[in-house]
Design a protein that fits this description.
Layout lengths: L10 H8 L1 H6 L1 H13 L7
């Protein structure tokens, strides 16, 4: 029996945890978005 790997991809889980609205909801998340805008990232979030 093989061990379970960590990465079990799910689109909804990914979006809800790391998505734009999740980032915008908290103060620290807003800071993340601010930093990424300042840095000039093409993608701010998932």
């Amino acid at each position: 029996m093989s061990t379970k790997r960590n990465w079990q991809p799910k689109k909804r889980k990914r979006a809800r945890t790391h998505g734009f609205r999740a980032r915008s909801a908290s103060t620290s998340g807003k800071n993340v978005l601010r930093r990424r805008r300042q840095k000039g990232r093409a993608k701010l979030s998932v």
